[in-house]
């Protein structure tokens, strides 16, 4: 598999605090890559480097082998990297369609919103993430946690995304909704979309990921093939009890 994104010696300082320390990691085409590690290990910071939220202090990011300068989220979006934020960044008082097209509204030559087009496109997108949101007109405030997550994922994947970043997407969901979101992630993978996911749930990680990258105190301490590793081995790497680093 080819590397879609490559981090080379990426460090990120917040003042004197080194949140990321010399991280080199490749994200491959068509894979689900999970990031695990204790609180404060640097997982969210790494996701934000990929999302263009935090430009690295040191090191560089390559996309399809060429260096890219991710200074802001628009830079990441421009090369097909989309983020599902932890708080989902949905507007409760708007309907599903409006949320899907937030910041990307389609406007006619005369400046009118293309409501009909957007609504049918939104319905199509929700169909793709195979989720039963009642309708593209449904208000977000009336949706369940899992349905909201689906809208956020649908939005992230609707505009030609190659890579979707998810930081703990199931943290606030119940059992059934979590299962639904995991199905969506599998669906994205089968559609050829690369997913990078942060999760604390190691069973979940071993279920959906192809590879698991383990972080500890800002460093990447190991990468495991999900099929060839166990929860115990991951915990040993997360806590440092494996004594390999
Ligand atoms: N915007 C920020 N400003 C200052 N420190 C931060 C900021 N974001 C994260 N940190 C610090 O960087 C370290 C890594 O945080 P984070 O990437 O959120 O860890 P994780 O997601 O693995 O729990 C922590 O010590 C955290 O306090
Ligand atoms: Mg985090």
Provide structural commentary:
With 245 residues, the protein is an alpha/beta fold. It has one domain (3-239): P-loop containing nucleotide triphosphate hydrolases (Rossmann fold, 3-Layer(aba) Sandwich), CATH 3.40.50.300. It has eight helices and ten strands. β1 (3-14) and β2 form a beta hairpin. α4 packs across α5 and α5 runs parallel beside α6. It binds adenosine-5'-diphosphate (ADP) and magnesium ion. Magnesium ion binds next to α1.
Task: Please give a quick description of this structure.
The protein has 245 residues and is α/β, with parallel strands linked by helices.
Order of helices and strands: EEEHEEHEHHHEHEHEEH
- In round numbers, the mean pLDDT is 87
Number of domains: 1
Characterize the main sheet: 6 strands, mixed
Each distinct ligand? adenosine-5'-diphosphate, magnesium ion
CATH fold name? Rossmann fold
Approximate helicity band: 25-40%
CATH structural architecture: 3-Layer(aba) Sandwich
CATH superfamily: P-loop containing nucleotide triphosphate hydrolases
Please compute the radius of gyration using only Cα atoms: 18 Å
List the helices and strands and how they pair.
Layout: E1 3-14, E2 17-28, E3 32-36, H1 43-51, E4 58-63, E5 66-68, H2 73-78, E6 81-84, H3 96-100, H4 115-128, H5 145-157, E7 163-167, H6 175-190, E8 194-198, H7 202-208, E9 211-216, E10 219-225, H8 231-239
Parallel strand pairs: 3-8, 3-9, 6-7, 7-8
Antiparallel strand pairs: 1-2, 1-4, 4-5, 9-10
Adenosine-5'-diphosphate binds next to strand 2 and helix 1.
